[in-house]
């Protein structure tokens, strides 16, 4: 029996969670939000309830990425006989260890929206911690995108250029390609 395992990657705000939930609902399979799994694992380790942003701010990027890798390794162990959609954090694929694990976990789909729309979505929630220069958010955004885009494209089995598509349209596109 073949299992349906889809990994969604892309920048913060590209629609991974929204699309992932919709797709999982349409296919009647489990949706996994990596950030939620990370929070659970952190709580088990530290007995302190924090959301993923708080974990990143309080413990730093190195701890966060190690925790992320640990969560992904745990998913590999329990994912064998399951169908699922996994929505990753925007930085998850930047770690080489995570890249290998993501490839083990399933078919990797990069959601690549319109650059301007993505910038507006990201900034609408405030300037994110991963922007190097908060005083020049557009410059930071462009630098992050320039670095991440080739990583995402190399890792992806499918790159979906979803420039003007709404989540329902993106789900339909994914369904046509899986």
UniProtKB/TrEMBL annotation:
<dbReference type="GO" id="GO:0005829">
    <property type="term" value="C:cytosol"/>
</dbReference>
<comment type="pathway">
    <text>Metabolic intermediate biosynthesis; chorismate biosynthesis; chorismate from D-erythrose 4-phosphate and phosphoenolpyruvate: step 5/7.</text>
</comment>
<feature type="binding site">
    <location>
        <position position="65"/>
    </location>
    <ligand>
        <name>substrate</name>
    </ligand>
</feature>
<feature type="binding site">
    <location>
        <position position="35"/>
    </location>
    <ligand>
        <name>substrate</name>
    </ligand>
</feature>
<dbReference type="GO" id="GO:0004765">
    <property type="term" value="F:shikimate kinase activity"/>
</dbReference>
<dbReference type="GO" id="GO:0008652">
    <property type="term" value="P:amino acid biosynthetic process"/>
</dbReference>
<keyword id="KW-0067">ATP-binding</keyword>
<dbReference type="InterPro" id="IPR027417">
    <property type="entry name" value="P-loop_NTPase"/>
</dbReference>
<dbReference type="Pfam" id="PF01202">
    <property type="entry name" value="SKI"/>
</dbReference>
<feature type="binding site">
    <location>
        <position position="90"/>
    </location>
    <ligand>
        <name>substrate</name>
    </ligand>
</feature>
<comment type="subunit">
    <text>Monomer.</text>
</comment>
<keyword id="KW-0460">Magnesium</keyword>
<dbReference type="InterPro" id="IPR000623">
    <property type="entry name" value="Shikimate_kinase/TSH1"/>
</dbReference>
<keyword id="KW-0418">Kinase</keyword>
<keyword id="KW-0963">Cytoplasm</keyword>
<dbReference type="InterPro" id="IPR031322">
    <property type="entry name" value="Shikimate/glucono_kinase"/>
</dbReference>
<dbReference type="GO" id="GO:0009423">
    <property type="term" value="P:chorismate biosynthetic process"/>
</dbReference>
<protein>
    <recommendedName>
        <fullName>Shikimate kinase</fullName>
        <ecNumber>2.7.1.71</ecNumber>
    </recommendedName>
</protein>
<keyword id="KW-0479">Metal-binding</keyword>
<feature type="binding site">
    <location>
        <position position="148"/>
    </location>
    <ligand>
        <name>substrate</name>
    </ligand>
</feature>
<dbReference type="GO" id="GO:0005524">
    <property type="term" value="F:ATP binding"/>
</dbReference>
<keyword id="KW-0057">Aromatic amino acid biosynthesis</keyword>
<feature type="binding site">
    <location>
        <position position="17"/>
    </location>
    <ligand>
        <name>Mg(2+)</name>
    </ligand>
</feature>
<keyword id="KW-0808">Transferase</keyword>
<keyword id="KW-0028">Amino-acid biosynthesis</keyword>
<comment type="function">
    <text>Catalyzes the specific phosphorylation of the 3-hydroxyl group of shikimic acid using ATP as a cosubstrate.</text>
</comment>
<dbReference type="GO" id="GO:0009073">
    <property type="term" value="P:aromatic amino acid family biosynthetic process"/>
</dbReference>
<keyword id="KW-0547">Nucleotide-binding</keyword>
<dbReference type="GO" id="GO:0000287">
    <property type="term" value="F:magnesium ion binding"/>
</dbReference>
<feature type="binding site">
    <location>
        <begin position="13"/>
        <end position="18"/>
    </location>
    <ligand>
        <name>ATP</name>
    </ligand>
</feature>
<comment type="similarity">
    <text>Belongs to the shikimate kinase family.</text>
</comment>
